[in-house]
Amino acid sequence: MGFELDRFDGDVDPDLKCALCHKVLEDPLTTPCGHVFCAGCVLPWVVQEGSCPARCRGRLSAKELNHVLPLKRLILKLDIKCAHAARGCSRVVKLQQLPEHLERCDFAPARCRHAGCGQVLLRRDLEAHMRDACDARPVGRCQEGCGLPLTHGEQRAGGHCCARALRAHNAALQARLGALHKALKKEALRAGKREKSLVAQLAAAQLELQMTALRYQKKFTEYSARLDSLSRCVAAPPGGKGEETKSLTLVLHRDSGSLGFNIIGGRPCVDNQDGSSTEGIFVSKIVDSGPAAKDGGLQIHDRIIESQTLIEQNEVSPFVTGRR
């Protein structure tokens, strides 16, 4: 809802008025079709009707409303009377300074804090009332046996009925105890919901951690099996049991500085049942179209027995054994 027109000092531009409440715009919002309304006016309308309040009646949702900051800043610079002008305050301040003024306005309503009074006065008169005029202000304690606080009104009347005062005091304590129990129950319920939420989050995190661990364990097992298979393949003898092997000598001519093959160190094969050793150096890769890839050349898994380099002819003569 907007601000009342009669609270402003001077005339207000009609463009600064809300078309719904016909007051000065408060927190203005604009629609996609260009109409501007108070936030407190247009939001309930859009939620209920789903359309623009203006005559266009264009379809509209709350998400499509936007703040008009330049217009809001302009309105905040208008001069406005204090909200407690009817109580006697004559101050006129900028609208943007109004909340600060209301916090300390001497003409704001204030309720007496003495139990049993409840009188509403001006803020500037409250302290004097509570100190000097309130009949509910304490002036001492009863000397007749109950020991309860004695108010100024009771003292002026010659005392109070201790039994009645004790019943009232007990009722006040019971009411306070009930309020504390209600607050404690509410806080316990909130704490219980929070605990359940935290337990659920912890369980979800533990489950996610377990699933992640299982995925990595599975990958680790797969990689380990693959590495073990590759190691056995590299370390296996060039021919299976019963297969014949033969030795041959090859002369390879370097091609652009490379002989066209890679080697790898071998180790004894655990599957070798006849006790023969397969430890040595083996051919692990042969480059296509390289010197080692020619007909009758090297093959993968061939074992290098001995190699010699002929410097003068830039050649190498490796002695290998392998399956053919």
From TrEMBL:
GO terms for biological process: regulation of canonical NF-kappaB signal transduction. The keyword RNA-binding does not apply. It comes from the Eukaryota. Residues 18-53 form the RING-type domain. GO terms for molecular function: zinc ion binding. Transmembrane segments: none annotated. Keywords: Metal-binding, Zinc, Zinc-finger. InterPro entries: PDZ (IPR001478), PDZ_sf (IPR036034), Znf_RING (IPR001841), Znf_RING/FYVE/PHD (IPR013083), Znf_RING_CS (IPR017907), Znf_SIAH (IPR013010), Znf_TRAF (IPR001293). A zinc finger (TRAF-type) spans 101-139. Residues 249-306 form the PDZ domain. Residues 77-135 form the SIAH-type domain. Gene3D superfamilies: 2.30.42.10, Zinc/RING finger domain, C3HC4 (zinc finger). Residues 101-139 form the TRAF-type domain. This is E3 ubiquitin-protein ligase PDZRN3-like. It comes from Leptonychotes weddellii.
